[in-house]
Every structure is written in structure tokens, then in C-alpha cells.
Write a sequence for this structure.
DNA sequence: GTGACGATGACATTTCGATGACACAGCGAT
DNA sequence: ATCGCTGTGTCATCGAAATGTCATCGTCAC
């Protein structure tokens, strides 16, 4: 396992790599975002430990922009207490973790090991159709930016439909993908769930069209 | 700076004091808890390095009982990897630290120096959410300024939730972080602990929200 | 118009979280 | 060693929320 530590505080530059090495990890060190970027270009790491604030910028911004290009290596942010407020930013992208300074070295090791083991998780994508956004990671749905709370089944059905926009999906497809094998294919659960889903998505035109004899599809009128 | 090393392994009895002396520290050595207790009674130390397991008992128990009497000298525990599971116990008192065997000697020095410098009166970070304050060092929680006494497990769970405010945390996450490996992931310990935590935090709106099928999260209504 | 299919409200069932009561282990005091 | 207390875990039960079933009504295509 190979880890990159990006840290500018001299004390932590010593302590963090030492701790990680004691857990049998190979550790490289960078002092700012520029050199981290270079190291990440050259080597493959299983995990990156980023200090939140670095001399040449905010590491979260850097990570966010790299994530946009599909970069998926897990990141652990070291953050000061007073930066906690904007912690949300750090978690827009799944697979990351953070630790508040000062931290127990014990905890650092545990987290880094866990992140490294986990491997590059493909960031759960956000599906979009018309004015609906579905965040598969957070299990959140927004319509026109407004948060809509869905039941588990409703979410699951909407997710399936949104992953095949404008395609007609049969009730059988839905039963097979969103229900377990115990589900009765003869019942009208799907219809009922669609009705409930529509009810929740009131706040715009009905995007779920019934295709007679075939199933349902997402379509913006 | 004067340090007491409590260690029974003959090899470490030599190596650890040698390392610390090389960092200009005055080092005394004890081979078991009984003689450590005596030494601590006679002398004033800036830091104590305790092996986790000693011939006459578990050093954590000893430290814990002394902490109850207000003893505040910072302690560094040397612990084997397989004792990691019960790391939670070790954190019942802030200001202490852990080092996992085998460790790098430089790391030991850095940590002991840091603990000694810090002195017995450190103020570790305080987590805040809504009107709840959690002092990780003093293991104290206040709601709207009023002191609330929590059990160790309750505290540990609240601390975990407060370190991830508004994020949904699964029961598995909680089990993994707040319980040792003996915990049964099938039981409802987490639910029970949450209930007890809620009961203690009465005195304001319920901040702990159950997210059906996913876990719990802290959220101000 | 009519027959098949979809929509939907009302109700039933299932699942899951909350909680009180109890059991047990560890620890301090005697 | 024994006893009692305190903290934590287990279990059974309760109740609410989520999901499924059913009956009825509407509507679309022929």
C-alpha cells in the first residue's frame, strides 16, 4: 500500500509519515498542491492524506476538480476545527474521509488503512433528467433544486428509470431490478409505486409516462 | 523533562530509555505497575510511557483509576496490534496517546516530546452542534450550557455523530468505531445506546434522527 | 361503446425503530 | 472472598412507517 501525504506543517511532516510507516505503509511526502499534483501524475497511490489548507491553496478545491475528471483515489483530509463548517464540501465526493486536528495518531492509521483497503471507489454519479437530480450516493432527489424525500422503493424505481431516460421499461424489468425475488410479478406494486412517485414529484410536469401494454418511461413533455 | 517508562520486555527496557535519553530527556524505568505506582508517588514526571500489558495487570485500568482522582500527567501507551480493538478504552481520557508496536524510535521521541511539552493541562478540541458542546478531552458534554453526564458508550457514539454532523451514519459504522471487535453487529446495541443518549439529552429538541434502513444522523430540526 | 389496461384510494401486512425490563460482568468497598 | 452498584448488552414488545393488496374507477384504442 502506498500513500501520499500532502502537508506543510513541519511537525506533521515528520509525525504523519512516521505513523503511517509504522503501519507498514509506503509513504511519499509533498509540501504543497503543486508537488502533490506532480507526484500523483507520476505514481499510483492507494490513498492520499491532504492537509486542508496548503500554501498554494485549498486542497478540497483541488480534489474536487480532479474528481470531475474521474479521479477516484480515496482522500483523507486533515482539517482544523474552524474549517469544519465547510466540511460539506469535502463530502460532495464519496469515498473520502476527514480527521479534525489535533487527532490521535491511532485514528489516523485506522482511517488510512481503511481507505486504502477500500480502493478507488467510482464516485456514485448524479443522474439528471429535466429538472430532476438524483444523487445515488446520498440517496437524495431534488426537483428544480428542491429536496424531495422518497421512500426506498420509490427511490429505487426512479433511479432505474433515470438510468434509462426516455426508454420504455417493462413492469417485469422494474420488478426484477427493484424488488427481491419474492416479489409477485402479477401484483400491481409497480403501478402503485409509480403513482406514489408521481405524487412526490408534483412541482413540475409529470415526467413518468405510461406506455400502454409496455411499461413506463421518463419523458419531458 | 522527566519521563517514566513502564515496560517489562527486556529488549524495550533498553531501547526505549536509550532513545528518550538521546532526546535529552531524563528517564526512569519501572518493570510493572506496582513499581510504577511507587515511582509516580515519589517523583513528578512530565510524561509516562506505559506498555499496555504488564505482568501485574493492564496499564489502562491503572491509569483510568488514577485519572478518577484527578491525576493528569500525559500518558503514551505502547500497544500491540491485536490490542487495537479496544482502543476505545484508551481514549476515555484525552491527553493520552497510543503507539502501535512495532514503532519507529523517532516516532516515539516525537510523541513523548509533544506530550511532555503539552503538560497536564491541555484543552483538547470541543465539538459543537446546535446547542450541544462535547469536550473530547474532559469527556464532558453540555446542552445549552448545562452539564450532561453520559456513559462511556453514549459519549463515544455522540462523539462519532458529532464528528460527522448531518451525515447519515450506519449502525455498522458505529459498531466499528465505538465498539470493539467482539460486538455483535446483529444485536440492537446501537439502537439501545441511541435511546439512552436521547434520554440524557432531553432538554431540547431531539437532534438524533433515525434514517430508516440507513442509520442515524445529527440534525437540528 | 366496450373491453382491457392504468390510476388511485382504502385497507392489510410487514418491516423497522423505540423502549422498558431484565441479565450479567466488572469494579470498588467492606 | 463477598456484596452491591453501575454500566452495558439482550430480549420481548409496542407502535409507527413503509410497502403491498385489493377493489373500484377512469380512460384510451379499437
Amino acid at each position: 500500500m502506498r500513500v501520499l501525504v500532502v502537508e506543510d506543517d513541519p511537525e506533521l511532516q515528520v509525525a504523519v509519515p512516521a505513523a503511517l510507516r509504522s503501519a507498514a505503509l509506503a509513504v511519499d511526502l509533498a509540501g504543497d498542491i503543486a508537488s502533490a499534483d506532480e507526484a500523483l501524475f507520476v505514481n499510483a497511490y492507494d490513498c492520499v492524506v491532504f492537509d486542508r489548507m496548503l500554501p498554494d491553496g485549498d486542497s478540497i478545491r483541488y480534489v474536487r476538480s480532479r474528481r470531475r475528471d474521474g479521479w477516484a483515489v480515496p482522500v483523507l483530509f486533515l482539517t482544523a476545527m474552524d474549517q469544519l463548517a465547510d466540511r460539506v464540501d469535502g463530502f460532495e465526493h464519496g469515498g473520502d474521509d476527514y480527521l479534525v486536528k489535533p487527532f490521535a495518531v491511532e485514528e489516523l492509521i485506522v482511517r488510512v488503512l481503511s481507505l486504502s483497503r477500500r480502493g478507488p471507489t467510482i464516485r456514485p454519479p448524479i443522474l439528471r433528467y429535466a429538472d430532476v437530480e438524483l444523487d445515488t450516493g446520498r440517496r437524495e432527489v431534488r426537483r428544480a433544486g428542491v429536496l424531495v424525500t422518497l421512500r426506498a422503493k420509490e427511490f429505487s424505481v426512479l433511479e432505474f428509470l433515470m438510468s434509462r431516460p426516455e426508454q420504455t421499461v417493462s413492469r417485469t424489468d422494474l420488478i426484477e431490478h427493484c424488488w427481491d425475488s419474492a416479489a409477485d410479478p402479477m401484483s400491481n406494486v409497480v403501478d402503485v409505486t409509480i403513482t406514489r412517485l408521481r405524487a412526490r414529484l408534483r412541482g413540475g410536469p409529470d415526467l413518468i409516462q405510461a406506455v400502454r401494454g409496455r411499461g413506463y418511461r421518463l419523458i419531458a413533455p
User: Anything to note?
Assistant: Chain A has a mean pLDDT of 81.
